[in-house]
Design a protein that fits this description.
Elements lengths: L5 H13 L8 E5 L2 E4 H17 L4 H12 L2 H17 L5 H15 L4 H12 L3 H21 L8 H10 L5 E2 L2 E10 L5 H19 L4 H8 L3 H4 L8 E2 L5 H7 L11 E3 L2 E11 L2 E2 L2 H31 L2 E3 L29 H10 L60
Antiparallel strand pairs: 1-2, 1-9, 3-8, 4-5, 4-7, 6-7
Helix pairs in contact: 2-3, 4-7, 5-7, 8-13
Length: 419
């Protein structure tokens, strides 16, 4: 569709070139109705470098690691654009989920004023709030598309799962342990009246959870433990002897899904959900079937996702400027850069660059091969789990496992047993 704009814009492009406007951005790839810029790739490279520096790399090792990671930077950008575009074709809407996640973040940040929260996001993420929200939306869209188009279509036959279980039985020998989620209603520094109110709130949360509200959502919006509220109150697995006795006596006797009454601990009132509990010894096939399914699906996912993205490339309008390489290119696909006229190097205004970042729709501003010079673009920072990242980008990586040490809200066995 963009081609019909080219003749109309050729004259104005010449005028712009003669006006001595500074080159601030350059298009390096066109992906259907979207573009990828040189500045975006440069920023991605700088993020890789910062990440490797944090890991302690320097000198030649740092240079090599950045070069190897950057080799797939254009591929990852194209991957995400294709997946987001496919989400639109599939009429996938995630606006309500984005709004919900942003609201949860605002609650965790304890910032009630929307404008102040937007300022907080800008400072933490080094990007405007609108850009952060769009980045989060794109991450969720890519996850949904991969789920619907790839992972949901991988079916492992039950006999094969049984075979895997029989061949890996030693992997499923369990110590007695319990997996929990928690909600802490703090009483630290509160008056007796406030403590009474905290207990009432904890009891109300228990009632809501037992009626079917998602425990993770309740933890995110109500728990006073900042560390665990970020991931829905999830805790690391515990063995006997790692928890207070009053907690152990409850959770190690209950089944999956059980929600405790409020438990009085030194820091407040604790509400726990038993997410999973394993008896000591060999786990049955039924107990570990989901885990086996994940183990068998994951090795297939990478290849199947790559195959799916190759098909999307084959069906897409895709042009890549000389000097840039898509490491995920579809075999036989012509992605050569096709200019309708040899004009002076493209120049665009700062306002146009900002508009591109927000809308990704400047397809009629076509760069000419040979454009050079440094790219100047305000830095962006990818979100993390939560946010998210680096959204990440190819399909986002799995969330990091919870910390191995028990959070303060669940005291260890040596903690005083106060009522």
């Amino acid at each position: 569709m963009y081609r019909k704009f080219l003749p109309l814009f050729a004259a104005s492009l010449c005028v712009a070139a003669s006006a001595d406007v500074r080159l601030v951005e350059e298009i390096v790839a066109k992906v259907n109705s979207d573009i990828i810029t040189r500045g975006e790739l440069a920023h991605t490279r700088s993020e890789f470098e910062a990440e490797f520096r944090q890991q302690g790399l320097s000198g030649a090792k740092l240079t090599q690691a950045v070069q190897e990671r950057s080799a797939d930077a254009l591929r990852d950008q194209i991957d995400q654009l294709l997946l987001v575009q496919k989400a639109k074709d599939l009429n996938i809407s995630v606006d309500s989920e984005v709004t919900k996640r942003v609201a949860e973040m605002q609650v965790r940040a304890n910032i009630s004023d929307p404008d102040k929260f937007h300022d907080f996001v800008r400072e933490q993420m080094n990007m405007p709030f609108e850009d952060f929200r769009l980045q989060l939306k794109n991450q969720i869209l890519t996850q949904r598309v991969i789920g619907e188009e790839v992972s949901s279509k991988i079916a492992i036959p039950v006999p094969e799962k049984h075979k895997y279980y029989d061949e890996h039985k030693k992997d499923f020998v369990r110590d007695e342990q319990v997996f929990l989620q928690q909600i802490l209603i703090s009483t630290e520094g509160k008056t007796p009246a406030q403590v009474t109110a905290a207990e009432k709130k904890a009891k109300e949360i228990v009632a809501r959870a037992r009626k079917g509200e998602k425990f993770g959502d309740l933890a995110t919006t109500n728990s006073d433990d900042a560390e665990t509220s970020r991931n829905g109150g999830e805790l690391p697995p515990y063995k006997r002897g790692q928890l207070m006795k009053q907690i152990e006596d409850i959770v190690f006797k209950q089944n999956k899904g059980f929600i405790t009454d409020p438990i009085r601990v030194p820091t407040g009132f604790l509400v726990l959900k038993v997410v999973e509990r394993y008896e000591k010894g060999q786990a049955s096939f039924e107990e570990v079937e989901n885990e086996i399914n994940e183990r068998m699906v994951m090795p297939q996912m990478q290849n199947k996702v790559r195959t799916y993205l190759t098909r999307l490339r084959t069906e897409a309008f895709l042009e890549i400027k000389p000097g840039y390489v898509d490491s995920g290119a579809a075999p036989g696909k012509d992605t050569s850069w096709k200019d309708v006229a040899q004009l002076k190097p493209q120049t665009v205004t700062k306002e146009e660059v900002i508009s591109h970042r927000r809308r990704k729709r400047l397809l009629w501003v076509v760069p000419i091969p040979g454009t050079g010079g440094p790219v100047k673009k305000p830095a962006k920072k990818a979100t993390s789990a939560a946010a998210p990242d680096s959204a990440t980008a190819a399909p986002p990586p799995a969330a990091a496992p919870p910390a191995a040490t028990p959070p303060a809200a669940v005291p260890p066995a040596t903690a005083p047993d106060k009522q």
